[in-house]
Amino acid sequence: MPEGATEMGVLYDYFAAPTDELAATAIDGGPVHRFPTVETKSLDPAVVMGQLEELLTGRSYDEISDDPRCGEDVAIEHDGEVLVLTVTDGLRDALAAAGDLDEVAVRWAAIEELDGFDPEVLAEILRDLRSLAAEAKKNGERLYCWACV
Fold this sequence. Notes:
The chain is an alpha+beta fold. The chain has helices at residues 3-7, 20-24, 47-57, 61-65, 89-97, 101-109, 119-138; strands at residues 11-17, 37-41, 73-77, 82-86, 142-148.
């Protein structure tokens, strides 16, 4: 992982849950072992994932950032050091339907926030996220992000 990826020390675990209320229960201890989860670092649900959604859908970043489910909190603890945030349904649906993730990973790695990331590592993360999103969509669930500073 590039130097900048661990500097902030923020963990972002993406997971699927059927409701905001159930997702909020992940605030204590995180979603791993409780919900289907993809563990990441430095991939925040608003800026970095918003730019991923823009790449996948062609929808403008401004429109994505205005989406009421773009990084909105459903639970906060420890003065904002632990959060459960929403992920847009547009990103869930676009990931679930995504084709060639290697090409997407190369374009995604070119954004300023991911400077230094290996596109192959990002492609692997994208494949995991695609599986999570496809399963969530099939089950009528939404995606969330547990963030811990």
